[in-house]
Amino acid sequence: MTNGIYKSSEHRAVVNSQKERLSIATFSGPEWSASIGPTPSVVTPERLALFKTIGVADFYKGYLSPQHCGKSYINNVLRIQKENIKG
Description:
Number of helices: 2
Oligomer: single chain
Helix content: 10-25%
Strand content: under 5%
Number of strands: 2
Order of helices and strands: EEHH
Structural class: mainly alpha
Largest sheet: 2 strands, antiparallel
Radius of gyration: 17 Å
């Protein structure tokens, strides 16, 4: 993760009735035994980590659970609350 430096955008496809469109889905991701969190190069003493580092399997289990609905999981569960940030 970029520690809030870069914002993600929702994928959108534009329908064009004049031109055929071909989509190919590909998937890539880290190993289930790895951890994900802010990239070390974007965390500095001046810019503390804004998100927790967790295991990939735990991330997907929470992210894909119905009660968190995708992106809200990142902001509601993984974001470090300001009162918990020391620095």
